[in-house]
Design a protein that fits this description.
Length: about 375
Amino acid sequence: MSEPARAPIPVFTTERQHAELAEALRAAAERVIASNSYILGSEGAAFESEFAEWLPARRVVGTANGAEAIQVALMACGVGPGDEVITAPNTSPYTVLGILAAGARAVLADIDPTTYTLDPAAIERALTARTRAIVPVHLYGHPADMQPVLDLARMRGLRVIEDACQAHGSQYRGRPAGALGDAGAFSFYPTKNLGALGDAGAVVTNDEGVALLAARLRNGGRENRDHHALAGLNSRLDEMQAALLRVKLPRLQAWNARRRALARRYGERLAGARLELPREAPGTTHVYHLFVVRCAQRDALRAFLAARGIGVGVHYPIPVHLHAGFRSLGYGPGAFPRAEQAAREVLSLPIFPELSLDEVDRVCDAIVEFEGGHA
Ligand SMILES: *Cc1c(COP(=O)(O)O)cnc(C)c1O
């Protein structure tokens, strides 16, 4: 199935995957419609145990989305009003929204410029007497350097809640991202490595107590039919999304392997290019949710590729602390120089399992052509 030479190349699309899975997705949807059970039924429970087995982790608690998975995970770990939670500035704004929704204060720390994940030394500098938790973000599918984070947390009595929303299947020293700390948050937003056909998320944990609390919190804090033991939130994973996710989960391993193969192809074809390629730190497995290169002339390269029908993205053009909506965090321009420089230079190239090697080659040819004209 070769593409016509000039067909546009999307940065991401569900179109090819959903064409392949159409029959299975339709069968799952029809099963849910016929069941007359739409919230907290057998599909959700089955997905929770299947995803737990896949990772592996002891417990999975479905939520309505990833941001609320972060909120529920923090609340289930006892983090709330009066507490400070440290995270990175170069993340999805939803990471910080999850922290704020739990009632905590978000404190930011700068990143390691090669992996784009939290710099352990910067975390130490951000600690105060009120620090209660750290939320490392496994950005782009590459795990944060967790051992120093876990050591620091143990020494200081802090909780560690991983933002694994981009890291389904990513490994750190042989263990799954999202199940390394007290709890992890996953998103199944349609663009993620495992994507629902709508909003969905999950809390992952090896701690039974955290799992029980999370399961109660996401269901309004209800302990039984009539009594709310806690003031929780409504953040349930619905049966339709769970059933659709169950169609995709058995394919996730192969999809991640395909993303890694595409990343290898980019690496081979761009080995001589001047732009900086993504790195995989020793002892980690990158699952390439995004294939992010770095280039001082990012905006010119972005325009050049877009003009040739090549879809590109920027994750993220504005660091969290420079959004008007996050002014109350209290940081100005220059507060996090490494994250701010990354925001000016990062560019996400097309990557998704159904992308062809020919399409990768076309993207690479265009980049080489760009560099030839910008020597
Ligand atoms: C997608 C994402 C989120 C939010 O997930 P939603 O399901 O959209 O709420 C949070 N953090 C990161 C790093 C993400 O990529």
